[in-house]
Amino acid sequence: MANKTIEVLHERCMGAGNCVEVAPDFFDQDPMDGTVILLHPQVAPGDEAVVEKAANVCPVAAIILHSAAS
Amino acid sequence: MASTNETATLRKFPFQRDWPLSQPPEMAEVRKIEPISKVQLWDGSTAWLATRYADIKQLLNDRALSSDTLRPGFPQSSETAASFRKGQRVFARMDPPQHDVHRLMLTADFMIRRVRGYRPYLDAMIDEVFDGMEKSGGPVDLVQSLALPVPSRVITKLLDLPPEDSDFFLDRVQKAMSLDSTPEESQQAGTDTLAYFARVIEERWDSDADDLISRLVRGRVRTGELTPEELQHMLHLILVGGFDTTANMIALGTLLFLENPDQIKKLRENPDLVPAAVEELLRYLSVAHHVAYRQAAEDTSIGGFDIRAGEGVIAPIMAANHDPEAFPDPEKFDITRDARGHLAFGYGVHQCLGQPLARVELQAVFAKIFDRFPNLRLVEKVENLEFHNSIIYGVESVLVDW
């Protein structure tokens, strides 16, 4: 099964940090302004649930999970 | 605009609770029969009310809706709330893009990694607070002895202010936000706090220290990005945002646990449940019960209803967090449930800036309190306690013994 990929819409990010709390292996915060840093765009099938949760708790919907190109 | 006949049949909002810790029964009823409806407010104006989790989430992230309370016709929960907000010039009440510019000046200071660094300080401070309770001997008022001192000390630490000034803040924040204050009292309390911050900004004008206020003065005010007045309001917002909210979470959270001794047992048997328990407390109590008021700046829609520019919209956090579609059996306080998707800190661009700090404070308190006081109990029954219906929901005092 192909990996899904994460896209972050940086201009939307408010630095709430929920993604970092839920999925610290994938997201971090910029020490200058707290906005999102994407650590790994590739999501192995076993990690999909946690990344989906991170996308779901992002208050400005700045995290998009793309299915592999079909 | 609703006609007189239409207005006469509308439900009055806010709804009344029949049990101090639960959602108003009318909220559950309305969610079932008319999940999106129009309601009438204290001043006779009308607004849309959403009661389902999915709708509330969508509305709070809808950029057609404005948070700017200075807009004519902006819906308000009460006369005091209207008066309190009239004096506010803060990014919580601004819309993007201006909101984003101001908020992003603060986000780094409230980042999870940074805020977690407070945990050792918090653990030591909370131990001290518990020592004080033990020394004075029961019964003690949990609000005065624990719930208020914890966030007030954290704020004085965060802003590097003298700890003894926390009594001043406490008094003014309560006066500013209480629905029992007259509009004049509420406004005066806000003016006093702004004057206090004006003095601090002046004192730190030439400071090269590393505290948040000195850094903002140096990096934002002296550079012309922020006026001194804007910084006063920003500091006021940090104060109001972090004080009453966390204090009431501590007091009401302890109360909710004491009403559910089986959950205390679970927590003590498995300390790993502390973070989940805090999320469940946040969901269940939803203390920010009169904050999610908006006004449509442009036409938009929700659940098949058209909202026209100028109309008021209310998207109550409590309604979302007690929607059985999102949280099965919502009136059950269950620290083992996955409550993480709750909207207790709001949603959209205005979601609480201080949420990582609130979480770490609450986790520090609830990790210890029931081990330190295993026989903690209420002196009075919950129904005899006095609850306050401010912008933030809370309790006046809670006598406990052990």
List the helices and strands and how they pair.
The complex is a heterodimer of chains A (70) and B (402).
Chain A: E1 4-8, H1 18-22, E2 27-29, E3 36-38, E4 42-43, H2 48-57, E5 63-66
Antiparallel strand pairs in A: 1-4, 1-5, 2-3
Chain B: H1 4-8, E1 11-12, H2 25-33, E2 36-40, E3 46-50, H3 53-60, E4 65-66, H4 79-86, H5 98-103, H6 112-116, H7 119-136, E5 140-141, H8 142-147, H9 149-158, H10 166-177, H11 183-203, H12 212-221, H13 228-242, H14 244-258, H15 261-269, H16 274-285, E6 293-296, E7 300-302, E8 305-307, E9 312-314, H17 317-321, H18 355-372, E10 377-378, E11 387-389, E12 393-395, E13 399-401
Parallel strand pairs in B: 1-2, 3-9
Antiparallel strand pairs in B: 2-3, 4-6, 5-13, 6-9, 7-8, 10-13, 11-12
Helix pairs in contact in B: 4-11, 7-9, 7-18, 9-10, 10-11, 11-13, 14-18, 16-18
Function (chain A): Ferredoxins are iron-sulfur proteins that transfer electrons in a wide variety of metabolic reactions.
Cofactor (chain A): [3Fe-4S] cluster
Keywords (chain A): 3Fe-4S, Electron transport, Iron, Iron-sulfur, Metal-binding, Transport
Report what the structure shows:
- The complex is a heterodimer of chains A (70) and B (402).
- Chain A has one domain (4-67): Alpha-Beta Plaits, CATH 3.30.70.20.
- Helix content of chain A is 21%, strand content 24%.
- Chain A contains 2 helices and 5 strands.
- Chain A has helices at residues 18-22, 48-57, and strands at 4-8, 27-29, 36-38, 42-43, 63-66.
- In chain A, the strands form 2 sheets. Chain A has a 3-stranded antiparallel β-sheet with strand order 4-1-5, covered by helices on one side. In chain A, strands 2-3 form a two-stranded antiparallel sheet.
- The longest helix of chain A has 10 residues, at 48-57.
- Chain B has 402 residues and is an alpha+beta fold.
- Chain B has a single domain (2-401), classed as Cytochrome P450 (Cytochrome p450, Orthogonal Bundle), CATH 1.10.630.10.
- In chain B, strand 7 (300-302) and strand 8 (305-307) form a beta hairpin.
- Chain B has helices at 4-8, 25-33, 53-60, 79-86, 98-103, 112-116, 119-136, 142-147, 149-158, 166-177, 183-203, 212-221, 228-242, 244-258, 261-269, 274-285, 317-321, 355-372, and strands spanning 11-12, 36-40, 46-50, 65-66, 140-141, 293-296, 300-302, 305-307, 312-314, 377-378, 387-389, 393-395, 399-401.
- In chain B, helix 14 runs parallel beside helix 18.
- In chain B, the strands form 4 sheets. A 6-stranded mixed β-sheet of chain B has the order 1-2-3-9-6-4. A 3-stranded antiparallel β-sheet of chain B has the order 5-13-10. Chain B has a two-stranded antiparallel sheet with strand order 7-8.
- Chains A and B meet through helix 1 and helix 2 of A and helix 18 of B.
